[in-house]
């Protein structure tokens, strides 16, 4: 931790990974390479996102991209970019993506890691030029090296994550990740093509005055959630909701607040996916001093045991005391 804080100004992600490699669970350099691969795909996706509006303009003039292909949807493009980077990097034997029903085998059967990823989250915001993000979670495989990855590699539970994080494509592009030794954030300098360490030791404020949820679902929320939100309003807290999980979560991580995706009548397990949304964000928030819970009586998100790939879970995450207060609400 001390080393992390002492990083000089101008530290690139590359240098940071090298300096902190000894903190990694197995410290052989493979996890470092995996993080580099994710960062590389993040840069490419960031570029695609920045050009998205322009491609529309070009399209309006009858142009196609250089390969003469029709423009693909950005979430499909992001899925291809991340899988390609993880395949070429060699360290991941398999990827589970929100965009795919089944495991994608990379062919790197000697790879020691598996990656669960939502390549581009916030689908409703993609077409309207509002912040979106990538969320990723990394496990060391439990299946034997040399053989294809199995379902069990991805269903180990949140506590077995060796690294997790997200990339936010916002007013700047940022990469935030943890390997279980605190959380560090990097801001992308596009003209240099580098992520620079901008947030060396991210800690979420213990409390805050922001609540983030889709209030359109008010009538479907359980009573304890409505009571909690009423309290927030009595205190004159601010409601802030982009509808992109990474953006809402990142804001609350920086300034303090709570993000809620409660169960609803339509989605009794909430909407968010456990393996590539809730687990990684729970790991990061706990490493930043915050909390991530599935609801009163349901326990820590990190303790949940998944039974299938695209499983959902309710999520209440953010500043410790705000989540604590929510869990203390009367549920009968
Ligand atoms: P997606 O995976 O289809 O993009 O959906 C996930 C998104 C999250 O980014 C966001 O927090 C949530 O869905 C918003 O849902 P809602 O529109 O119900 O508020
Ligand atoms: Mg998603």
Automatic annotation (TrEMBL):
<feature type="binding site">
    <location>
        <position position="118"/>
    </location>
    <ligand>
        <name>Mg(2+) 2</name>
    </ligand>
</feature>
<feature type="domain" description="Fructose-1-6-bisphosphatase class 1 C-terminal">
    <location>
        <begin position="204"/>
        <end position="327"/>
    </location>
</feature>
<protein>
    <recommendedName>
        <fullName>Fructose-1,6-bisphosphatase class 1</fullName>
        <ecNumber>3.1.3.11</ecNumber>
    </recommendedName>
</protein>
<dbReference type="InterPro" id="IPR000146">
    <property type="entry name" value="FBPase_class-1"/>
</dbReference>
<dbReference type="InterPro" id="IPR033391">
    <property type="entry name" value="FBPase_N"/>
</dbReference>
<dbReference type="InterPro" id="IPR028343">
    <property type="entry name" value="FBPtase"/>
</dbReference>
<keyword id="KW-0479">Metal-binding</keyword>
<feature type="binding site">
    <location>
        <position position="271"/>
    </location>
    <ligand>
        <name>substrate</name>
    </ligand>
</feature>
<feature type="binding site">
    <location>
        <position position="241"/>
    </location>
    <ligand>
        <name>substrate</name>
    </ligand>
</feature>
<keyword id="KW-0119">Carbohydrate metabolism</keyword>
<dbReference type="GO" id="GO:0042132">
    <property type="term" value="F:fructose 1,6-bisphosphate 1-phosphatase activity"/>
</dbReference>
<dbReference type="InterPro" id="IPR020548">
    <property type="entry name" value="Fructose_bisphosphatase_AS"/>
</dbReference>
<dbReference type="Pfam" id="PF18913">
    <property type="entry name" value="FBPase_C"/>
</dbReference>
<feature type="binding site">
    <location>
        <begin position="121"/>
        <end position="124"/>
    </location>
    <ligand>
        <name>substrate</name>
    </ligand>
</feature>
<keyword id="KW-0378">Hydrolase</keyword>
<feature type="binding site">
    <location>
        <position position="277"/>
    </location>
    <ligand>
        <name>Mg(2+) 2</name>
    </ligand>
</feature>
<dbReference type="InterPro" id="IPR044015">
    <property type="entry name" value="FBPase_C_dom"/>
</dbReference>
<comment type="similarity">
    <text>Belongs to the FBPase class 1 family.</text>
</comment>
<feature type="binding site">
    <location>
        <position position="118"/>
    </location>
    <ligand>
        <name>Mg(2+) 1</name>
    </ligand>
</feature>
<feature type="binding site">
    <location>
        <position position="120"/>
    </location>
    <ligand>
        <name>Mg(2+) 1</name>
    </ligand>
</feature>
<keyword id="KW-0460">Magnesium</keyword>
<keyword id="KW-0963">Cytoplasm</keyword>
<dbReference type="Pfam" id="PF00316">
    <property type="entry name" value="FBPase"/>
</dbReference>
<feature type="binding site">
    <location>
        <position position="98"/>
    </location>
    <ligand>
        <name>Mg(2+) 1</name>
    </ligand>
</feature>
<comment type="pathway">
    <text>Carbohydrate biosynthesis; Calvin cycle.</text>
</comment>
<comment type="subunit">
    <text>Homotetramer.</text>
</comment>
<feature type="binding site">
    <location>
        <begin position="259"/>
        <end position="261"/>
    </location>
    <ligand>
        <name>substrate</name>
    </ligand>
</feature>
<feature type="binding site">
    <location>
        <position position="214"/>
    </location>
    <ligand>
        <name>substrate</name>
    </ligand>
</feature>
<feature type="binding site">
    <location>
        <position position="121"/>
    </location>
    <ligand>
        <name>Mg(2+) 2</name>
    </ligand>
</feature>
<feature type="domain" description="Fructose-1-6-bisphosphatase class I N-terminal">
    <location>
        <begin position="12"/>
        <end position="200"/>
    </location>
</feature>
């Amino acid at each position: 931790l001390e080393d992390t804080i002492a990083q000089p100004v101008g530290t690139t992600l590359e240098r940071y990974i090298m300096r902190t490699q000894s903190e990694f669970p197995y410290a052989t350099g493979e996890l470092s390479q995996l993080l580099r691969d994710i960062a590389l795909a993040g840069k490419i996706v960031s570029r695609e996102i920045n050009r998205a509006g322009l491609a529309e303009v070009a399209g309006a003039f009858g142009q196609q991209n250089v390969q003469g292909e029709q423009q693909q949807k950005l979430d499909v493009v992001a899925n291809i970019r991340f899988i390609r980077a993880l395949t070429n990097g060699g360290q991941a034997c398999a990827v589970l993506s929100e965009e795919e029903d089944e495991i994608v085998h990379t062919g790197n059967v000697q790879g020691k890691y598996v990656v669960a990823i939502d390549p581009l989250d916030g689908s409703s915001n993609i077409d309207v030029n509002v912040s979106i993000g990538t969320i990723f979670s990394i496990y060391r495989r439990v299946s034997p090296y040399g053989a294809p990855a199995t379902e069990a590699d991805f269903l180990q539970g949140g506590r077995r994550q060796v690294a997790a994080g997200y990339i936010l494509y916002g007013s700047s592009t940022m990469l935030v990740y943890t390997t279980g030794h605190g959380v560090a954030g990097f801001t992308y300098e596009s003209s240099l093509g580098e992520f620079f360490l901008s947030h060396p030791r991210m800690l979420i404020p213990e409390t805050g005055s922001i609540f983030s949820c889709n209030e359109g679902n008010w009538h479907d929320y359980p009573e304890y959630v409505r009571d909690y939100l009423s309290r927030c309003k009595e205190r004159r807290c601010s409601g802030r909701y982009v509808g992109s999980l990474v953006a809402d979560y990142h804001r609350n991580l920086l300034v303090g607040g709570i993000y809620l995706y409660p169960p609803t009548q339509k989605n009794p397990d909430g909407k968010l996916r456990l393996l590539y949304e809730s687990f990684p964000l729970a790991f990061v928030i706990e490493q930043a001093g915050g909390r991530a819970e599935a609801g009163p009586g349901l326990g820590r998100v990190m303790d949940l045991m998944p039974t299938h790939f695209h499983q959902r879970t309710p999520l209440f995450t953010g500043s410790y005391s705000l989540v604590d207060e929510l869990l203390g609400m009367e549920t009968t």
